[in-house]
Description:
By secondary structure, the protein is α/β, with parallel strands linked by helices. It is about 55% helix and about 20% strand.
Amino acid sequence: MPNRIPRVLYIDDDPGLARLVQKAMERRGYFFEHAATGETGLTRIAHGGIDVVVLDHYLPTGTGLDVLAAMASLSDHPAVVYVTGSAETAVAVAALKSGATDYVAKSLDDDLMELLASAIDHAVERVRLNRAKLLAEREMREARERAEMLLGEVNHRVANSLAMVAALVGLQANALQSSEAKNALAETQARISAIAGVHRHLYTSDDVRTVEIGDYLRSLAGELDASMKAAGHHALINVEAVSFPLATEKAASVGVIVTELVTNAMKYAYRDQQGEVRIRLVRIGESVELRVEDDGIGWDGTGTPQGTGLGSRIVKAMAHSLGATVSYGGGAGTSVSLQFPG
């Protein structure tokens, strides 16, 4: 209630006591309103602006407990100081259980006004603190929503910018005569597209801190399949990936690794013949295991890699960023696996 005088509503059918309470409240600087029945009081509370309700137990129709029950459905109801007879301890306990902030035992001596005023002072302070807390929580929630919206817009623009860069790299490749240079630029284009794919998933996600890795890998595999077929490679890409949220920076590294391994398998495993490249990603406890394998000519990770070896160096660099090591399986074909914290 910053910069506003607290407003007290007194619900009681005793006009004489209501006048005494009014004088006590106005001396303390509060606005005072009076309702003689529970129904009238509830109507006034529903209009808003009441900070504290002083509620007598015995009312013309029903009791103050009935009023408390009706107030329970209000999202921001005022604090309640319940007034009971001096011997009605059970009623006071029932009122506190029903949502009253405090209670005062009604008596005929001069202490009643002082006790009531003190209870109202405490209730006003409690309302002020609660409303300040709700306001701070709402402001934090709104700030977080604005930040998430802005992050989504940033990821949208980054994805579009990276897609434009990839397209420019493709145009540059088309303008070259050297097949070696064309291939190098095509691989660069694929790496850029892999990272752009992460940002595309981020701007459609409710949580920009993570990417649904299974969905991302299936989308990436589709893009790789289309681009490799356009380059004359006809192996099939099969994805088996459990979908779960993975930290954004880890998803980007996984995307680059998969792009390199699939591209290498397409180029060297089958020598432009039909075959299959399998991408598997599973969660094992607190770790994630990624495996890319083919049934081609095979390579166990030793000796000189085919091509420039840049792809192998990129895979190792991305694996290092994930806190993983690259291992090669034996047997036919090539099997590359990594395990890293998920």
